[in-house]
Amino acid sequence: MHRGESVPFFESRTWSHPEVPEDLARLRREAPLVHCITNGVVTNFTANVLLALGASPAMVETIEEVADFVRIAQVLLINVGTITTRDAEAMFEAAAAARETDTPWVLDPVAFGALEFRSRIVRELIAFRPAVIRGNASEILALGGETGGAKGVDATVSSTEAVQAAVALAAGSGAVVALSGEIDYITDGSSVIPVPGGHEMMTKVTGMGCTLGALIAALLPVTGSAFRAATAASAIYAEAGERAGRDARGTGSFAVSFLDQLSTIGTEAAP
Fold first, then answer.
1. What is the 3-state secondary structure (H, E, C) of the chain?
2. Range scoring the smallest mean pLDDT among 130-134, 202-206, 231-235
3. Which tens digits make up the pLDDT trace of 190-230?
4. N or C: lower Cβ tally within 10 Å for the chain?
């Protein structure tokens, strides 16, 4: 898909856009309670990312509690990364409660298209109307009915190749689609905002995409706009990744530096 072919592309959004630090500052002031049903590989990192940015994470996942907690939290994240049958039941309970209470929520369809069980669960979850669907190029292509070429949870095609599928998915589902990759693309089905930046080491640290979904969720209740929340989250992540990459000696120090950058970005004194 090329610019102007089907939907208009807006100017690229980066940290320097005034809305982005404004949205982050509001997140820190309001400290929204984020209900995370996420995968076991990234639970700790997700909580630390949200804390670094000023949000309040809660990892409430048992089926006996999820619906009640949705009614307490400002926003819900559902990530199917390490899904089990019991997890799926809890996800349906939470998504149904979110629909009932008009609680905004984010769906991360990890490895959609690679395995039938998780793919079926994701299709059923989309019927509960997530505000945002965040995925990599392979996942978004597969959701659009195309061959995504995934290798496990990793994409094997570029985000640019999946923009048309992202636009179609947004138009068909009613969700904003946040397509992650070397360039992130955010679309509501009628327009697209590219978000460049980041660092190549972000692909070597577990949970970068999953925690981006958590940040999108945290921004949803404070911006009041799924499109703006997803765009700001991608821009914040790209900037923090670039800064962390300048300091890191390898992937371990990058992960630590990334958390440091998230905790300090936007708090720098004016020159």
1. CCCCCCCCECCCCCCCCCHHHHHHHHHHHHCCEEEEECCCCCHHHHHHHHHHHCCEEECCCCCCCHHHHHCCCCEEEEECCCCCHHHHHHHHHHHHHHHHHCCCEEEECCCCCCCHHHHHHHHHHHCCCCCEEEEEHHHHHHHCCCCCCCECCECCCCHHHHHHHHHHHHHHHCCEEEEECCCEEEECCCCEEEECCCCHHHHHCCCHHHHHHHHHHHHHHHHCCHHHHHHHHHHHHHHHHHHHHHHCCCHHHHHHHHHHHHHHCCCCCCC
2. 202-206
3. 999 999 999 999 999 999 999 999 999 999 999 999 999 99
4. C
